Amino acid sequence: MPRKSIYELYEFLPKTNCGECGMSCMAFAGHLLARDVCPRDCPVLDEPEHEDNKRRLLEILGEGVKNELTGLIVDDHLCIGCGACVNVCPVHGANNREVALGKGPRHDDVTVIQIINARVRLVHPELCNRAIPSAPPCKACADYCPTDAMELV
Ligand code: SF4
Ligand code: SF4
Ligand code: SF4
Questions:
Q1: Who lines ligand 1 at CB under 6 A?
Q2: Do 144 and 94 belong together in one domain?
Q3: Lesser CB count within 10 Å: N end or C end of the chain?
């Protein structure tokens, strides 16, 4: 599944720039992508002629909830629990020499993300590079996810 984009979301908006949401349709698409608004915040989408588009937007946006500290969203319906994201997270390698050499972190290691009940979970968001202003920008977990279950917004 390709990554979501503002333009993809914009295609399903009414494109009237009516301003009822307090912004333009393009700006609304950007806020949708960042999950700062949701499709129901556009009242025009409630009109019957936009019913299909609203349903499509809900499908594209998925069911993941944004973690405010990191901007990480995991869609449980897409995650297969493979652990690729856990293995590539640079924080895990920095904290553990074995992990830096290629071994996966053990379950009781302190990690940013972990597989729990066959799904990835953010267990220490405060350790994620994205929560630390001075840390290098990072999106390794999302880049290596084979199912695009992860988004960083
Ligand atoms: S309320 Fe909907 S149609 Fe109106 S500007 Fe916002 S996104 Fe566009
Ligand atoms: S954004 Fe980087 S530091 Fe944060 S969980 Fe993903 S790989 Fe780890
Ligand atoms: S890499 Fe993707 S599919 Fe695999 S555990 Fe992480 S989020 Fe789930």
A1: 13-14, 16-21, 24-25, 28, 42-44
A2: yes
A3: N
Domain span holding position 42: 6-61
User: Is the Cα dihedral 123, 125, 130, 135 positive or negative?
Assistant: negative
In this structure, what CATH number is given to the domain that contains residue 20? 1.10.15.40
pTM value is 0.84
CA distance 67 to 65: 6
The ligand that comes nearest to the alpha carbon of residue 57 is 1
pLDDT digits (tens, 9 = 90+) for 61-74: 988 899 999 999 99
Per residue in 92-137, pLDDT (tens digit) is 988 888 888 888 888 888 999 999 999 999 999 999 999 999 988 8
Q: How far apart are the first and last CA of the chain?
A: 17
Structural domains of the chain, count: 2
Ligand 3 atom closest to the Cα of residue 144 is: 1
**In angstroms, what is the C-alpha Rg of the chain?**
18
Mark out the alpha helices in the chain (DSSP H runs).
6-10, 25-33, 51-61, 84-88, 90-95, 97-100, 140-144
User: Do 49 and 96 reside in the same domain of the chain?
Assistant: no
